[in-house]
Amino acid sequence: MVKENEVPGRLEWRVNMPNGSSRILAPESRETCNRLQSLVMRIFLNIRGFLDKAWNLAINEPKKVVHCLKVGLALSLVSVFYYMRPLYDGVGGNAMWAVMTVVVVFEYTVGSTLYKCVNRAIGTCLAGSLGIGVHWVASQAGDKFEPVILQVSVFLLAAAATFSRFIPTIKARFDYGAMIFILTFSLVSVSGYRVDKLVELAHQRVSTIAIGASICILITMILCPVWAGTEVHHLISNNLEKLADSLEGYAAENFSVDGSKNVHEKDSSKRLQSYKCVLNSKAAEESMANFARWEPAHGKFNFRHPWKQYLKIGASMRSCAYCIETLHGGINSNTETPEFLKKPLNDVCMRLGTSSSKVLKEMSSMIKTMKKSTKLDILVDEMNSSVEGLQNALKIFPSYQHIPTPDPATEEAPTGTEEPSLKPTALSLMEIVHMATLTSLLVEIASRIEGIVEEVKELATQAEFRDESSKKSKQNQTKINGNDGNEHEVTMKTLQKV
Amino acid sequence: MVKENEVPGRLEWRVNMPNGSSRILAPESRETCNRLQSLVMRIFLNIRGFLDKAWNLAINEPKKVVHCLKVGLALSLVSVFYYMRPLYDGVGGNAMWAVMTVVVVFEYTVGSTLYKCVNRAIGTCLAGSLGIGVHWVASQAGDKFEPVILQVSVFLLAAAATFSRFIPTIKARFDYGAMIFILTFSLVSVSGYRVDKLVELAHQRVSTIAIGASICILITMILCPVWAGTEVHHLISNNLEKLADSLEGYAAENFSVDGSKNVHEKDSSKRLQSYKCVLNSKAAEESMANFARWEPAHGKFNFRHPWKQYLKIGASMRSCAYCIETLHGGINSNTETPEFLKKPLNDVCMRLGTSSSKVLKEMSSMIKTMKKSTKLDILVDEMNSSVEGLQNALKIFPSYQHIPTPDPATEEAPTGTEEPSLKPTALSLMEIVHMATLTSLLVEIASRIEGIVEEVKELATQAEFRDESSKKSKQNQTKINGNDGNEHEVTMKTLQKV
C-alpha cells in the first residue's frame, strides 16, 4: 500500500510495511509510483469519459435505452422455459434454441427484427427439409457412401448459398436467411449421421425457434415500437430541414445587409454545418428503407408504402448537398467584389437563398404532416422568379464602373454643387469571378431543389398524401385580410386550385 | 397436357384427353393458357436474368467465387468431426458448436474473420466465467431465490451489453463480441439451472468453438487470402485514379481545342462518371479500414500500419469529389461565353485540369507502389502555377470586347487593307458568369487536391514509404536530355532534393 504524507517543506512517499514499520520511498520508487499514479489517473479519466459519453447517449436517445430494457425483458421471459419444469420438458431440453433466437433476432427496429425472423424461418425450414432429404438419400446409399454424399452436398450447397449472398438483390433481402440456410443445412445433414430421431429433433428445434421469434416480435411491436419506416420518414424530413437551415444560414451570413452576421455565432455555425448530415446519411437511409419493407401497416403508413421513393428523395437531396458543400467550402477569391455590384446582387442573392430554403422547409413539413401542400407550387414559382430576377440583374449590370475623374478646372476649389464627371472603367474578370460563382452556384442549387420537388411530389402521389383540409384553407383566407395585396393574389390562386 | 396445333389461317389450342380424344379449347381457356404461358415465360426470364447477373459477378470477381469454395471446404472439414467416431467422442457430441462457429465466423476478408474470431473468443470467455460465477452465487442463495437472481442478472447484463453496442467506439470494435457475450451469458447462467456438469459443458463448448475458429483462420489466411488492408489500400489508390480520370475527361471534353470531343463517346462518358464511385465508397472504406486493424503484418503492411490515415485521405477525396460533381452537374448558363474570352481561357483551364489530374495520378501510383514520389512536389508546383496562370489571365482580361464599328466612309466599298475601327463594348455579367464559375470551381478543386496531397504525404510518413530507388533517378536523368529546358531545370531541382 502506498500512502501520501505531506511533510512541511517537501513531499515524501512512505510505504507502511505489514509489520507496522514504515519506510520512506527512494526517488526511483517514487518515480515508479508517480508513473503508476498517472496511469491509474489516465485509466480513470478514460473510463469517466466513456461513461460520460454513454450517459449523453442515453439522455439524447432514450429510445435506445428502452430498446435495451426490451432485450433484457425478452431474455428474462424466454428463460422462464428453463425454470418451469413443464415448459422445459415440453421442448425436450431444447430451450437453448429459444434463447439463442432471441439474442440473435432482436434488433432495434421492428422492421429489422421482422426481417431476421422471417429470414430465419424461411432459411431454417428450407434447409431443414432439404437436409432431411439429403440425409435420406445418403442413408440409402450405404455406409460407405453416406459420409461422401453428405460432405459433397454440404460443400456444394454452402458454396452456392455463400455466393448468393454476394448478389445485390439477395443481399438486400435475404442475406441473413442465406446464412441460416447454410447453418441449418450443415447441422441437419451432418448431425443426422449421429442423431437417430432426426425428424423429432428438427420439430423441437423449429418450435423453440418459433417461441423465441414470437416473443421477440410481440415485445418489439407492443412495447414502444421503433418502426424503421417512421425512422426513415423522419430522417428524410429532418434532412430537408437541415438543408434549408444551412442554405438560409449561408444567405444570412453572406448576403445580409444589416449586421446580423455575428449574432449567436456558435448557433449559426452549427446550423451552417448541418448539411453535412445529409452527405453522410446514405447508408442509414438505405438500410432503414430496406427494413421498412418488412413492416406491417403502422401509423400513417400502409403495408405497401413507397419506401423506395424515399431513397430517390435522399439521392436528389445529396446531389443538392454537394452543391451546398461547394458553396460553403468557400469559393476562394483574392479579390473582393466591387461595392457597386455587391449591394444590388446581394439583395437578389438573399432573396434566392431565402426562397430556396422556404421550398425545402415546405417540403419538409409536407412530408412530416403527410399532406399535399398547396403552397409548394407557389414557393417554387417564387424561387424560379428569384432565379430569373438574379439572371436579369446579371444581364442588366454592366461590367464596368463609373469612376469619378477629377476635373482640372474644379480640382483646387470644389464647389460641391457640381457632380464630378464619371468615366466608365472596365472591371477585370478577376473582380467579378467571386460573385459570379456564388450566383451560379445558387442558381444550380435552385435547379437541384426542383429535382427534389419532383421526387417529393412523386412520393405524395404514390403514398396518397391527403389534400390540405378545408380548415387550412380557412386559415389562409383569414391571412388574406391581414396581408398585402401580393400575397392576397397568390393565395387566391391557391384557393382556386384547391 | 396442352398442345399447339397450327391450322392454316388461324391458331387453335387442342387438349388431348387421357382417353385418346382431343378437344379444341374455348377462347376463355385459351386465354387462361396464354396467361399461364406468359407467366411461365416471365418467371423463366427472371430466373435467366438472375443467373446472368450471378454469372457476370462470378466472371468479374473471381475472388468471391474462391471465397465461396473456401466456405464449402471449411464446412466439409469441420463436418469430419461428425463422421469420425474418435473425434466425435472427443468433443462429447458438441460438434454442433464447431459447425456453427464456422458458418457464423467465416467472412470474406481475413480481417473480418479475425475480428469475429477474437470477438467470439473474448465474449465467450468473459460471459462464460461471469455466468458460472453468477450461477454459483445463485445456487448458494437457495432454491427459492435462485431463479430470481439468475433472471435479474440476465436482465441487467443483457440490457447493459445491448446498450454498449450503441456506443460508437464499442460498436466499431466489439459489436459482435457484445452479442456473443449476451448469448453465452444467458445460455450459461440459465441453462446452469438444468445442467449439472456446467464446467465440463463449458469446457467442451469452448474447445469446439476453438476448433471451428482455428479451421476458419487457417483456411482464410492460407488459401488465396483476401486482406481487408490490401483492399482498402487498392480502393483508395483506384479512387484517386478515378478522380483524375473524370477531371481529365472533363477538361478534354470542355476545354479541348481540337475536335477530339466525340472520339469514343461511350468510353469517355463512363470515364467522366467515375468520380461517383468516390462519393459512394465511404461505408466500404470505413468497414475495411476497421477490419484491417485486426490483421497481422502481410505483404507490404506492418501490423501497425496507419489504416486510419486512409480514412482521412478518403474524406478529403470525397470533399474534392463534391466539387467535381458540381462541375459535372453542368453549371447552367443560358448565355454562351463570348469567343474572344473563351479561347485563351480554355487554354489555361485545360492546363489546370491536366496538371490537377496529373497530381492525382501521381498520388495514386505513389500509394500503389508505396514509394515516396519526388515528382509529386513538382507536379503540385506545376498545378499551383497553373492556378496562378489562370488567375493572371482573369486579371489581364478586361470585361469588354472590341466590336468593329462600321465606318460610314468605307461601308460601301471596303478596301480590305484598312482594319475596321474597334469600339470597346462592355459585356454584361451574364456573359461572363459561366466561364467565371468554371474557373473558380477548377481553382477550388486544385486547392482541395492540395488537401489530399497533405494527407497522402502524412500517410507516406506514417507508413514509412520507401524513397524512390536510384534506378528511377537515372531514368529521370535520361529524360532530361530529351526534353525542353523548363523540365530540365525542374528535374535538376528534384535531383538535388533527392
TrEMBL record, chains A, B:
<feature type="transmembrane region" description="Helical">
    <location>
        <begin position="65"/>
        <end position="84"/>
    </location>
</feature>
<feature type="transmembrane region" description="Helical">
    <location>
        <begin position="90"/>
        <end position="110"/>
    </location>
</feature>
<feature type="compositionally biased region" description="Polar residues">
    <location>
        <begin position="475"/>
        <end position="484"/>
    </location>
</feature>
<comment type="similarity">
    <text>Belongs to the aromatic acid exporter (TC 2.A.85) family.</text>
</comment>
<dbReference type="GO" id="GO:0034220">
    <property type="term" value="P:monoatomic ion transmembrane transport"/>
</dbReference>
<keyword id="KW-0407">Ion channel</keyword>
<keyword id="KW-0812">Transmembrane</keyword>
<dbReference type="InterPro" id="IPR020966">
    <property type="entry name" value="ALMT"/>
</dbReference>
<feature type="transmembrane region" description="Helical">
    <location>
        <begin position="206"/>
        <end position="228"/>
    </location>
</feature>
<dbReference type="GO" id="GO:0015743">
    <property type="term" value="P:malate transport"/>
</dbReference>
<dbReference type="GO" id="GO:0016020">
    <property type="term" value="C:membrane"/>
</dbReference>
<feature type="transmembrane region" description="Helical">
    <location>
        <begin position="174"/>
        <end position="194"/>
    </location>
</feature>
<dbReference type="Pfam" id="PF11744">
    <property type="entry name" value="ALMT"/>
</dbReference>
<protein>
    <recommendedName>
        <fullName>Aluminum activated malate transporter family protein</fullName>
    </recommendedName>
</protein>
<keyword id="KW-0813">Transport</keyword>
<keyword id="KW-0472">Membrane</keyword>
<feature type="transmembrane region" description="Helical">
    <location>
        <begin position="148"/>
        <end position="167"/>
    </location>
</feature>
<keyword id="KW-0406">Ion transport</keyword>
<keyword id="KW-1133">Transmembrane helix</keyword>
<feature type="transmembrane region" description="Helical">
    <location>
        <begin position="117"/>
        <end position="136"/>
    </location>
</feature>
<feature type="region of interest" description="Disordered">
    <location>
        <begin position="464"/>
        <end position="498"/>
    </location>
</feature>
